Structures are given as C-alpha cells and as structure tokens.
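User: quick one - fold this with adenosine monophosphate bound?
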Amino acid sequence: MLVCYTKHELRQALTELRVHGSVGLVPTMGYLHEGHMALVARARAENKVVAVSIFVNPTQFGANEDLSTYPRDSERDLQILRDAGVDVVFTPTAGEVYLLDADTHVETGYLSRVLIGRIRPKHFRGVATVVTKLFNIFQPDRAYFGCKDYQQLTVINKMVADLDIPVEVIGIPTVREADGLALSSRNVRLTSKNRAAAPVLCQSLDRAEVLVAGGGATVHSVKKEILDLLAGMPSGVVESVDIRDAGTLAPMRGRIASAAVVLLAVRFESVLLIDQRVVTPSNNR
Ligand code: AMP
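Assistant: Sure. Structure tokens for the protein plus adenosine monophosphate:
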C-alpha cells in the first residue's frame, strides 16, 4: 500500500496505478471503523484500484465545533487499510490541501442551508469544496459515501449533477452496533451514560419506519411519536427531527404518500449524533 502525503506524490502514484483499471475513492476523516470499511469493501469489489483519503477537513468545522478534539489514530488507520487490501492512501496536512490565499468555494444552495446546514452554517460548503478538490486530485471513476450522512450524500449527488463532475457517486447503507447505534468516529467520546441512551435514535427510526409502512401516517403523527420516544432519554438534547422528501429534502406536509427521509440530530454534551432512515409507505391508503 502506498502512503502519500502530498498531492504530487498521489498524482504520480495514481498515474501508474490507473493503467490497471478503474479507481474507487473512499474519502474519510480517519479513526476508521466498520462503517468506513463497508465503503472500502464495496470499492474493493467494484474497482481495480482502491484509494482512501484520511483528512480531517478544517473548513467543514465551525469555530466552536470539535476540530481540535476530533479523534485521530493514523498508525492504526494505515494498518487497517493495509489489511483490507487498499492500494493507495492520501493523508495530507491542511497546508498541503489548501492554498493559503484560497478564494474559491463550492456550495450547493438550498441543500446546504437546511437541516444540519442550519445547525452548522458553513459545514456543507466545506464538505462540497473538499470533495471537489479530492475528486480533482484523485480523478476517481467512482466515489463511496455513507447513507448515514444522508444530507452530505444528497449535497454531493447534486453537486456532481449540477457541475457535470465525471464521478459515479455510490451511497452505502449505515453499519450499526448490535444495539442499533450507527457507528461513528465520535462515539468514542460519548460518556457511558450517553452511550447507553444513544440507541434511542435508531429505535425512533425503527418506529417511524413501521408507522409509515403501515400507510396513512402523517408527518405530524410520526414526528410526535419520535419526539415522545426521544423525550424518554435520560440524557441528550434533541436538536432536530425532520421528515423530508427523500430525493430533494424539501419539507413534507400531511400524509406521507411517497419516499421520505427521517433525519434526527441529538446532542449528547459536546457530541452531536445524527441518524437517518428512508421510509416508504407500502400502500397509499
Ligand atoms: P467520516 O470519516 O465520518 O467523514 O466518514 C467517512 C465516510 O464514511 C462518509 O461517507 C460517511 O458517511 C461514511 N460512514 C461513516 N459512518 C458510517 C457508518 N456507520 N456506516 C456506513 N458509512 C459510514
């Protein structure tokens, strides 16, 4: 496995590797877990060359967010990727990625302002910009993202379509702990009390899925059930409960008659956990 620290090294490595066939890219912020590795496994199955980036992107963190405390373990990450048969890893510093006088950004409009975009105003601009840069640096055929970060996946799909970026974006289902908690690098920062409370996010999504599948559920009734379930948490503050059109993230009203996405954000002290589920009515009664 080649480990590259500069764009120049990476471009050279990929020029040689690309002759073997398609390149699949998995962008990550490191501190790898089984969720990331599901993306890597899919990339390995679908491409001749698997490339992974490990970069905690400062521009997607707000001033009071957890950039400085974001968990990192580079040696462990590299060993995990080696064991998974990854071909090339890019693990740059922020100074390597961004020019000091950078003055260009990529931003989706509506999709970046709603939901998590309201809680984290510059977040999706940082994500869209760094993903564009990674696409330009790696020039992959395919790129793999988790459905757990549903809004992020929607932003990237829209950006790729709007800007004619020649990369196939593939969404991978969320990998969970046995009790339903979505795997996340941030989970290690949950106190034991908060860790015990956290599976309620997944339980709320399970309930929403059942309600919507039964037909006749309304946005209001599903939200109310979720809020009631979340109100029983011994800790945690509900930041948002949203039900939106699964394709456009436009707000929905009244009866849920088409595919919707339920998006939850709950803060456990300094750790913001998010989770999502696409729910579909099985009939239109
Ligand atoms: P991160 O390192 O948190 O930026 O995540 C890198 C990629 O892995 C993103 O596309 C995430 O959506 C994806 N990812 C994170 N957690 C999971 C999970 N539990 N299951 C599947 N994909 C995940």
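One thing worth noting: The pocket of adenosine monophosphate is lined by residues 28-29, 35-36, 38-39, 145-146, 148-149, 172, 174-175, 182-185 (CB under 6 Å).
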